[in-house]
Amino acid sequence: MPNPAIDILICGGTIDKTYFPEREVFDFEKTHINELLTNARLSTSLNVNLRFLFLRDSLDMDEADRARISRACRESLSRHIIIMHGTSTMIQTAKRINDEFTGGKNIVLFGALLPYELTRSDALFSLGAAMMAVQLVEPGVYVSMNGRVWAFDQVAKDEEAAMFVDL
Question: pTM (2 decimals)?
């Protein structure tokens, strides 16, 4: 079976934050997607297309941002789409995409609870899990976190435990 084209939509989130010691904050400087793809040692036979949308904390996203993500999914020529997104509102974005259009596509949102730059980040694992999930799930909109994949309406983020859980 040939490997499918996988579109990765880049939207920021904690996964892409960089630490700025002079300000003592995590903020955005650039996306880390190329480093993530290299360091995750994903198969070179995967046909990956990157589409940069924006770098934003998901708590700062608004409905215009969600509409932009949903439109990018509709416009994608690939049947397999993963969306690098902040974890705080990824379920809201997944719902918006589902409400507007899935069109027979496998769409998986993923992120990280710790920035990629941190030693104990879950970023590489999250990317690998999302890449695998998008190739295996039936068409629809999903969230992939903590080694699992859920239909977007079957998952919640447990802020206290810092994990995604069954609804």
Answer: 0.94
